[in-house]
Each structure stands twice: as structure tokens, then as C-alpha cells.
Design brief:
By secondary structure, the protein is α+β, with helices and mostly antiparallel strands. The chain is built from 12 helices and 13 strands. The longest helix has about 40 residues. The N terminus is likely disordered.
Length: about 450
Amino acid sequence: MRQQRNTLVPALLILLAVGLGHGLASAQTPPVPPAAQSAPSPPAAQSAPPAPAVADDPLGRETPDLERRLPKSLTSAQIGELPAWVPIALTVLLVALYYLMRLVLAIAAVLVDLVRRIRHRPGSTRRSGAWATLVRPSAFLLTIGLHRLIALRLGIPLLFRYYYDRLVVVLLLLGLVWWLWRMVDFVANRIRDRLLTTYPRTAQSAYVLGRRILKGVAFAFALLIGLAAFGVNLSATLAGLGIGGLAIAFAAQKTLENVFGGIFVLSDRSLLVGDFCRLGQHVGEVEDVGLRTTSLRTPGRTLVHVPNGTLATMDLENFSRRDKFLLNPTIALHYETSRAQLEQVLASIRRLLTDDARFEAGTSRVRLIRFGSSSLDIEVFAYIATRDFADFLAIQEEILLGVMDVVQKAGTALAVPSQTMYVRQETAETPARPVAFE
């Protein structure tokens, strides 16, 4: 039932628009009575001047023949200085033409699909992304254009016609901006989808910044067309903008620096959306690369905005570009460990790394590096072939637990920071002997 109502309303509006257009056409070409066709024309000297078909009212509005066929309740009522039927007809005509243009575009899409089938080309126009993106703004532009052509026959007064023409220009400009912005979104999505296969992280960053720039260009283009439509001299305007642009450039030097900085950041791909990096003193994940700033989400869930102009002078460390992780702990054994136990620990840790395929072969080493102040220090140096930080933490935990088992099996233990102090006691009767405290 709801679908029938949704289809009935546009159908009634379309029929009303067709009837209104038929009435306007008949009003422009009134039928000639048969008597007037067969009657001989009187002599030129006795012929009276023909009566005008329409009469001009004080507002300068020609009364069309259609108004004479409408009920007096619509023609006698006034909305401002206009008859009530004129703004009602303009509003109903606007809605009816919009649905009519949607229907026309749907019929055109069906014809295109029919031609595709004849040529054995698969695909559906109404299911494509271009149709879903551009059908509404296209129908809106066609509606405003046809509305302007039909509204001229409704007998709008000259003063109101002037404001109506300006309103039509504004609506056309808004429709043009709408159409261009939807086209920018469609093209940007297509380019991003193609880049996702080869440059998945670059695609999102370029999509965000490029879409904003193209929408700004589209808005500026529509603004220039609007100025020309309102009679503004574009040559003098552009010349004035050229001189004033220098002053604006000096005043907005930092802003322009940030804009070009954002473009350079995306061009050399040093920083992309989703990267986990360190920018100066801030560490976090890049959420957005805008025209002026780059947004960084810190581990504390705060959002830091870094100006793009300062990125060129900052130390940038990108953790997401890491191809492997370094495992580099120091194992401390207490000094009571014998040489045999130490060699057993070294051999067991080396075997633990070489038997694990997750470690990079040829770069792993386990060495006794120093006699520390309170321990025998063994350095473990190995690269883990993973790019995920969570996987690295899991592998590191597994290796450290394995090292503890190795140390326990060797019969030794890990050292804790300690200090041994020797105190000598001397008396006249007994020789001095050292006393140790730990």
C-alpha cells in the first residue's frame, strides 16, 4: 500500500504538469472561430483596430487566457501583489517537473541498457555508481531549466520576474555545485579503489586531501560563473584578485605553508593515514592529513594537531614502516655461575633461536659481553620476521620464558643487583681478618 502511494503521488504531479503545459500552449494559440474564417474582410477604411487578446494590469503583468479558466477563488485571492494561483502553480510545477525528470532519466537509462544488450555488453546503468551519484543533481538542474522556460508563460509581473530570474540563477549555481561535488566524490572513489590494490595506505590519504582540494576548485568555478551571470566583469575582478592575492598571500603565509606542506607530505609518502609514528615529542596513530594540520591520536586517546608546515623541520619516526622487530634483551647471571654452566646457557639460547623459523637466519647472536658490577651479562641479538607489534610482544614473551627454563636447567640463576663490602678489623692482640657483608 505504501509503495502504491509513493508511485501515485509522482504520477498525479506529472499529469498535473502535463495538463498545465497543455493549458499554457492553448492559451498562447487561441482557436479561431469558423465564422471569422468564412466572413469576408471589411474594407480597409471601415476596419476597426483589433482588440488585444490580453490586457495589461497596473503591475505590468499580461493576463493569460489560462487565468480566465481558473476558479475565481484562485484568481481573486492575493499573495502579496501576485494572484494566489501563480506561486501555487510555480511550486506544484517545480515538484512535478522534478519527478518528471527522474522519470525521463530512468527511461534514458533503460534505453542505454537496451543498446548495451544489443551490442552484447553486460552491465546496468541504474545499478552503476555514476547513476546513484549523479541522478538527483542532474534531475534538479533539468527541473530548474524547464521551470524557467514554462514560468515565462504564467504572466509574472516584470518586477517579480526580475527577482525570479535571480532566484533561478542562484538555484542553478547551487545545482551545479551539487553536481560537481557529487562528481568529485565519484571520481575520487574510483581513483581510491584503483590505488587500493597497489598503494592501500596512500589511497586513503590522497582521497581525503584530494577530494577537499577538488571540491574547493569546483566551488570557485561555480562562483566565477555566478559572478558572470550577475553581470560582474570577470577581467577586472581577476585583475583585482591578482593584486589583492599578493596581500592575502603575505597575510596568510603560514596557512599557505601548511597547505603546501600537506601536499608534500602526501607526495613523498612519508606519512599516511593509519601510520603509528613519532612527531617530535608526540607518539600516536595518524588519523587525518588535512589541508592545514595532521591529526595524531595518542595512546592516551588524546588528539594532537600538528601544522603541516612544521613537519618538514620535525624529527619523524614512522613505526609502521618497520619491516621486522629487534629482540635485544640482556641476560644477567650471578657470579656463582661456573664456566660449564655459562657455556651450557649460551648453547641452549643459541639453539632456541636457530630452531625457531620466526627469527631471521644469519643475524642472530648470543654472546657474553661483559662482567657487570653484579652479574655476568649475556646479550641476545635477533630479528623477528613480523610487522605486527602484538605478534612481536607474544614472540618476545615466549623467548624470555624459554630463557628462564634454560637458566634453571643449567643449575644457575638470574642475578639481582647486589653489592659486597669487605670490612677489616684490626687489634693489637689478634691479626686482622676480613669480614664480608652482602
